[in-house]
């Protein structure tokens, strides 16, 4: 949008009897003192696209338009007048009219022919052949259509706006460019130049002068404001006239085409601009019944709010925000803010951007970089019990399914909890529930072993009698052991076992021995059978016979004792106690061993 302000325009138009009366307005005074003067051209030129620049066509004429004689060509004319050639002026100039004499028109396209008069800033043209032809430069121009151009007579152009545009207090030269309808092929007009034989037909600039003072005044829209965000404005006005007897009236327009009704002078007026973005001009006319002056003021209508990028209203963000706005100034939480600044601190913000017209854009937003907090579990946590999980904000999924804060997770397994807050911050917690104690192989609780034991466990860590123990290690030393295996969830398996490689000790009977008295037999551990029947340690064996005592301890160690009880003395044959023999005697005994007079004796010896 264009920003800024144009200068106030001041246009004086003097209207007199026979010229113009404002529609539906006051009647202008019939006795308005006016006078006119004719100014002669100081220089004129003809430009022909084929032949170049000449001061006339050698017959005192300038031709303008398009022709086909000798090949297609384009022709234009130029005239220069000195506005101060008639000093002193007889009054205040209020109108300028360019008067040309048309000698004739010709061409097959005359029906669509016209003549335009433009102004030029180039006042250096002279009246010689091959001179530099000036170029048109004015915005204003005046046109006469073919039916307004006589075939032999005068045509008059009102060039007042052109003169106002191309002259000033120091530039008193007025140069005009004459141009036809150059879209045609064959249509042109011949007008008299300053070299034409009949002086009455020479180009003239007729100046009309007024001999009274015009009214004066001023207009300011909204007290001179540069911008407005509403098409409804207030006009601040002044109007006065040096001639105190004059009665002033005023009217207003947005385009100088449609005017309000004439009304009495006022100091302010509510006014409605065109409903269009951009620079708007309000025109203010004051008349004293003789003169009408036109003043104007401009203001930029801007109803578009500043455009803000980087944030949106009610936006919630989890990262830094770079905020820009396209116009005006801005405040962030009440402090001045520069477009393009990065906002990084967490918090709630109110951003307000205001442009020069007072349009404002307000955006509430929040920066939240803090991820949701989860309670009841930790990342990579392993638990042996049901877990009640809560989180402080957002929504969650557990293994892809929706999960509600405060719900309990009880089934064994691995879990991924994802909690996302409204800002998009994410907390992910991986955890598992394992209620199963470690499995131990190689030993069983309460069991004794009489051989080395290789012990394994499926998970966790272990101690043996308080010392670290590795799965797969072998225990060989005799003793009592406590194996404690803990997994990551805290489940514990405890195994108490014994390694006992020593066989039970039996007293009261010795393997292979025979006894002739009752035997009280004891053993230090385990259980026993005697000849296959349970036997209790400390029991007495009194019956004669052969015995097999088997004692087995808890580790499976076995002690076997074979013994016998024989209370019957050996039977000797061949001799009798107290008897004398006179022959050799062959002596036998049924069991045991014998000595004869202290020396070993074998049964059956003689």
UniProtKB/TrEMBL annotation:
Write out the entry's keywords from A to Z: Signal
The signal peptide, as residue positions, is 1-29
Q: What is this protein called?
A: Uncharacterized protein
Native species of this protein? Paenibacillus odorifer
């Amino acid at each position: 949008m264009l920003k800024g302000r144009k200068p106030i325009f001041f246009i004086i138009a003097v209207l007199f009897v026979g010229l113009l009366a404002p529609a539906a307005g006051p009647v202008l005074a019939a006795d308005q003192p006016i006078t006119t003067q004719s100014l002669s051209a100081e220089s004129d030129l003809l430009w022909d696209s084929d032949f170049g620049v000449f001061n006339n066509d050698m017959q005192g004429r300038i031709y303008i338009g398009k022709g086909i004689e000798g090949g297609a060509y384009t022709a234009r004319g130029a005239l220069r007048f000195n506005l101060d050639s008639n000093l002193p002026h007889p009054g205040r100039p209020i109108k300028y009219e360019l008067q040309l004499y048309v000698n004739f028109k010709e061409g097959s396209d005359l029906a669509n022919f016209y003549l335009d008069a433009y102004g030029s800033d180039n006042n250096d043209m002279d009246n010689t052949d091959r001179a530099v032809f000036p170029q048109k430069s004015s915005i204003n121009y005046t046109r006469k259509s073919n039916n307004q151009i006589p075939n032999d007579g005068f045509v008059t152009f009102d060039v007042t706006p052109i003169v106002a545009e191309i002259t000033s207090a120091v530039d008193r030269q007025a140069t005009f460019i004459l141009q036809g309808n150059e879209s045609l092929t064959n249509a042109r007009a011949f007008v008299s130049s300053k070299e034409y034989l009949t002086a009455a037909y020479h180009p003239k600039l007729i100046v009309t002068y007024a001999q009274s003072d015009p009214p004066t005044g001023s207009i300011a829209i909204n007290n001179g404001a540069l911008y407005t965000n509403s098409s409804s404005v207030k006009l601040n006005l002044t109007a006065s006239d040096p001639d105190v007897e004059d009665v002033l009236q005023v009217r207003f327009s947005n385009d100088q085409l449609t005017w309000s009704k004439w009304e009495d002078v006022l100091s302010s007026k509510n006014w409605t601009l065109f409903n269009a973005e951009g620079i708007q001009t309000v025109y203010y006319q004051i008349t004293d019944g003789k003169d009408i002056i036109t003043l104007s003021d401009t203001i930029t209508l801007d109803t578009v709010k500043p455009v803000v990028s980087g944030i949106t209203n009610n936006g919630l963000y989890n990262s830094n925000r770079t905020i820009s706005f396209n116009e005006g100034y801005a405040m962030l939480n009440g402090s001045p803010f520069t477009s393009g600044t990065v906002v990084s601190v967490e918090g709630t913000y109110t951003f307000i951007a205001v442009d020069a017209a007072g349009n404002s854009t307000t955006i509430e937003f929040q920066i939240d970089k803090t991820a949701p907090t989860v309670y009841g579990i930790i990342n990579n946590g392993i638990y042996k019990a049901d877990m009640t999980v809560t989180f402080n904000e957002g929504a969650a999924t557990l293994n892809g399914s929706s999960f509600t804060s405060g719900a309990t997770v009880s089934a064994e397994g691995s879990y991924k909890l994802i909690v996302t807050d409204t800002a998009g911050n994410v907390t992910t917690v991986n955890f598992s529930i394992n209620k199963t104690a470690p499995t131990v192989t190689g030993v069983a609780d309460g069991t004794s072993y009489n051989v080395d034991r290789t012990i394994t466990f499926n998970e966790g860590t272990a101690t043996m009698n308080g010392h670290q123990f590795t799965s797969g290690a072998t225990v060989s030393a005799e003793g009592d052991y406590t194996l404690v295996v803990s997994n990551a969830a805290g489940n514990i398996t405890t195994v108490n076992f014994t390694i006992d490689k020593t066989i039970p000790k039996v007293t009261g009977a010795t393997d292979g021995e025979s006894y002739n008295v009752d035997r009280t037999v004891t053993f230090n551990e385990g259980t026993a059978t005697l000849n296959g029947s349970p036997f209790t340690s400390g029991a007495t064996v009194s019956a004669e016979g052969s015995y097999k005592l088997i004692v087995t301890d808890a580790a499976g160690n076995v002690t076997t004792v074979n013994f016998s009880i024989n209370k019957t003395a050996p039977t000797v044959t061949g001799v009798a106690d107290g008897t004398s023999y006179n022959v050799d005697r062959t002596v036998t005994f049924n069991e045991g061993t014998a000595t004869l007079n202290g020396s070993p004796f074998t049964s059956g010896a003689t």
